[in-house]
Specification:
This protein is mainly beta and 300 residues long. The chain has one domain. The strands form 5 sheets. Strands 3, 12, 13, 14, 15, 16 and 17 form a 7-stranded antiparallel beta sheet that branches. A hairpin with a 6-residue loop joins β10 and β11. It is elongated and about 60 Å long.
Length: 300
């Protein structure tokens, strides 16, 4: 199986949210994402938009199961646990060609699943890894039906869910937006993936070595979503590149007015900042940024 970088998101690249931390910090916009092939053995997604860091800041990405705070954070295993039982079916007329990647799958023998092989949809060996779990560590380390192994960082890949609509994804952070880049600046026909439902404040929902970031659509409804990206090492008040993946898990890269620095995410409704620090709300166009029951902020 080849590895692919993510293509466009809902027809347009994601942009960093325009944020206000208290009265000073501002977000920045994203450049076009990087395309091209990734390491062989897994399908890849470098989160939000390949080079796209995070909504409220800088970047990392991935996803794993586990309950998140306030409803954000991958209950990944819930939707994927039924994937095996509703996977492939060889009977009747299949709505996909040559098979259907979303659940319930069809078009493949009972021992196989519909997935992406090379740069096309095809039947392939059935895996067992669930949504949000790390995958691609060996040739047999494959995702269960309804998912594909996508690269979150240079060293970590996880299973992302195929989708037709947002209702196929884990709310509130999961949206049906991502396409797989075929390595030649084109998408793989009929394949759309959910973003991970993770929690930037706790990093719940992302595999080790990745970081959950808050993102926003650059066009259309400009909805907020979450995505697991490559994690860096920079922490509070350390300089970062808003277009890179410098910040550690639980941190985003923000423009504080004088420079771009990593700041720690927090939930205004249940602040847990180090040393009893203040959790300053993040704002977009003057309104608080919320997903589920989390009102996002950063620790000052």
């Amino acid at each position: 199986m080849h590895a692919w970088w993510p293509g466009t998101v809902g027809g347009a690249l994601l942009a960093l949210v325009t944020l206000a931390v208290g009265s000073c910090a501002q977000g920045s916009s994203l450049p076009t994402g990087a395309g091209g092939a990734s390491p062989t053995g897994t399908t890849t997604h470098s989160a939000a938009s390949s080079a796209a860091s995070s909504t409220s800041g800088g970047g990392s990405t991935g996803s794993s199961s586990g309950a998140g705070v306030g409803g954000v954070g991958g209950a990944a295993s819930t939707s994927s646990s039924s994937s095996s039982s509703s996977s492939s079916s060889s009977g009747g007329v299949c709505s996909g060609t040559p098979c259907k990647v979303t659940l319930p799958q069809c078009g493949c023998p009972p021992s196989e699943e519909c997935t992406v092989e090379g740069d096309v949809v095809a039947c392939g060996p059935m895996g067992t890894d669930q949504q949000g779990q790390q995958c691609g560590t060996s040739a047999s380390d494959l995702c269960a039906p309804g998912m594909v192994c996508v690269q979150n960082s240079p060293t970590v890949s996880s299973c992302l869910k195929f989708c037709d609509t947002d209702s196929d994804c884990e709310a509130p952070g999961g949206l049906c937006l991502f396409t797989l880049n075929n390595g030649m600046d084109g998408g793989i026909m009929g394949v759309t993936l959910c973003s991970e439902n993770c929690d930037p404040t706790t990093n719940t929902g992302c595999p080790a070595g990745t970081a959950c970031q808050l993102l926003q659509e650059s066009t259309g409804q400009k909805r907020f979503l979450t995505m697991c990206e490559s994690a860096g090492t920079a922490v509070k008040d350390q300089v970062c590149n808003p277009m890179g993946y410098d910040c550690a898990a639980k941190f985003g890269c923000f423009n504080t007015g004088s420079s771009d620095m990593c700041l720690q995410y927090c939930n205004v409704n249940a602040p847990a900042c180090p040393n009893a620090g203040l959790c300053s709300p993040l704002q977009n166009m003057g309104a608080p940024i919320m997903l589920g029951s989390i009102t996002f902020g950063v620790c000052e």
